[in-house]
């Protein structure tokens, strides 16, 4: 997993509310345990028509979205069933963060554990971002801030452990593995045995 310290990107805006995990990555594509290749099926039913042709009206199919790593989405992003494939698909497509006023708890947890950054901002900031697609923003994970054009910064909540893991580019298992020597020493020196 790649570390995230700072992201600088133009935004791509998908203003729909209640975007659920089945819209992010439809269930018929959940036949793999690999993270690779899922980006091709991201928002599949919106990106493509019934014949598999790109929908030119969908924002990710438009030229101005190329290279954007920050998605601005409507309220309640990531609701629906729990699936790690949703943040995997977003990451594999090239997105690194989503900004909204509300992000579903399970999606948020799965995202943070897999190196995708869910950012919750206030209503006014969100409304401005929705009204100004393609603006360049700067996300600082260590400071937990999003800086808008003109220099205004807004903070977003993130727990310390999730921040640490994102900054280090590790997941929970990676965190434990970094402490393998201390765990082994504890196992050898503790006065009681299981």
Could you characterize the architecture of this molecule?
The protein is α/β, with parallel strands linked by helices. It has one domain (6-189): Alpha-Beta Barrel (Aconitase, domain 4), CATH 3.20.19. It contains 8 helices and 7 strands, in the order βααβαβαβαβββααα. A 7-stranded mixed beta sheet has the order 4-3-2-1-5-6-7.
Please state the structural category: alpha/beta
Helical run tally: 8
Integer count of domains:
1
What integer is the average pLDDT? 93
> What's the CATH architecture?
Alpha-Beta Barrel
What is the CA–CA distance across the termini? 34 Å
Percent range of helical residues: 25-40%
Largest sheet: 7 strands, mixed
The radius of gyration over CA amounts to 18 Å
Number of strands: 7
CATH superfamily: Aconitase, domain 4
Which stretches are low in confidence, meaning pLDDT under 50 for 5 or more residues running? none
**Percent strand:** 15-25%
Strand line-up of the largest beta sheet: 4-3-2-1-5-6-7
Order of helices and strands: EHHEHEHEHEEEHHH
In the CATH scheme, the class would be Alpha Beta
CATH overall fold name? Aconitase, domain 4
**Which word captures the global form?**
globular
